[in-house]
């Protein structure tokens, strides 16, 4: 979980805390079936943070896997009779401080994607200062929400704090990119090996099949799908490990993932057959439980990705900068 006392709690941490507190206080009935969908609707969030929170509670044996879908509340760990009821009538409530925090997180989630794309794009064109007040005004959110967004961008290595405590994006240089790839080649294969036992083979197989289909026919291949594949392999799979310091460092070196979409937007969608093939090979080996081979394949993929990225960065240097939103101010 988040170990930085100054950082805002992540959504899954908020969901986990509420459910844990209710379980510890015996406020949820024995046998209550907990499903991701209804809980996500109750919290006003997506299923992903709920899934993570339920997995954590299951690992702590606060809830048990249910023979059907989801989990079941069981204080005894024995044969509990499942109770299916509306989660809103189960005794689950949302404390005031959590309610406000959830609203804040929902606000930053709503605007995060657009801001991330624009910041990553700007970084490729030079050094930009991020004007926090303008960002908040432009997206009609509070300064607190704006800071939440910037904090998330900082976690992923997309922005930095200057010596005068101003938020800065870029410049994206070849030297910086090489450093990030060196870190990724050291950490990501080790993280993948640690995460392998926790990966769902059905999910891996579905993603592998999707990649194979697009390899054979690129007609439906889009930058968004490529980004989805990147995030699945380099983020979702790797975040399954328990070493939170390692996951934090991995997240801080994800600028190459964010800038890949920028390159595709301004340089066009190049032949991505190699990228798809490299991703698919890693998944194939994970499905076969050849973990060491999968880690080695990931190293090979990152080495190839580094070469492709540096080549695109060189071409990108002659592309004129577009007009960015007013919250991005070009600096020297």
From TrEMBL:
SMART domains for the chain: FCD, HTH_GNTR
Transmembrane segments: none
Top-rank taxon: Bacteria
Name used for this protein in its record: GntR family transcriptional regulator
GO molecular function terms noted in the UniProt entry: DNA binding; DNA-binding transcription factor activity
Pfam families on file: FCD (PF07729), GntR (PF00392)
PROSITE patterns the record matches: HTH_GNTR (PS50949)
Domain HTH gntR-type: 9-76
InterPro entries named in the record: GntR_C (IPR011711), TF_FadR/GntR_C (IPR008920), Tscrpt_reg_HTH_GntR (IPR000524), WH-like_DNA-bd_sf (IPR036388), WH_DNA-bd_sf (IPR036390)
Keywords: DNA-binding, Transcription, Transcription regulation
SUPFAM superfamilies found in the cross-reference section: GntR ligand-binding domain-like, Winged helix' DNA-binding domain
């Amino acid at each position: 979980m988040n170990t930085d006392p100054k950082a805002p709690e992540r959504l899954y941490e908020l969901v986990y805390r509420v459910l844990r507190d209710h379980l510890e206080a015996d406020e949820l009935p024995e046998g209550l079936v907990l499903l991701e969908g209804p809980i996500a609707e109750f919290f006003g969030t997506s299923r992903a943070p709920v899934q993570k929170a339920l997995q954590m509670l299951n690992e702590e044996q606060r809830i048990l896997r249910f023979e059907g879908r989801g989990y079941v509340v069981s204080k005894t760990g024995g044969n509990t009779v499942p109770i299916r009821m509306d989660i809103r009538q189960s005794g689950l409530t949302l404390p005031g401080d959590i309610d406000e925090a959830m609203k804040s997180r929902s606000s930053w989630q709503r605007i995060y994607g657009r801001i991330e794309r624009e910041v990553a794009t700007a970084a490729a064109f030079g050094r930009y200062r991020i004007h926090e007040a303008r960002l908040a005004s432009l997206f009609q959110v509070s300064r607190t929400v704006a800071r939440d967004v910037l904090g998330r961008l900082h976690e992923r290595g997309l922005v930095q704090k200057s010596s005068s405590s101003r938020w800065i994006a870029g410049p994206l240089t070849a030297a910086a990119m090489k450093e990030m790839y060196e870190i990724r080649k050291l950490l990501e294969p080790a993280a993948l090996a640690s995460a392998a036992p926790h990966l769902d083979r059905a999910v891996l197989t579905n993603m592998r099949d999707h990649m194979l289909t697009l390899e054979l026919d690129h007609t439906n291949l889009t930058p968004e799908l490529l980004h989805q594949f990147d995030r699945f392999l380099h983020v979702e799979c790797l975040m399954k490990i328990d070493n939170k310091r390692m996951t934090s460092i991995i997240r801080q070196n994800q600028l190459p993932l964010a800038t890949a979409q920028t390159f595709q937007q301004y340089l066009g969608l190049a032949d991505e057959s190699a990228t798809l093939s490299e991703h698919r090979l890693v998944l194939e080996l994970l499905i076969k439980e050849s973990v060491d081979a999968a880690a080695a394949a990931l190293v090979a993929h990152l080495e190839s990705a580094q070469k492709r990225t540096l080549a695109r960065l060189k071409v990108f240097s002659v592309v004129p900068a577009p007009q960015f939103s007013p919250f991005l101010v070009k600096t020297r």
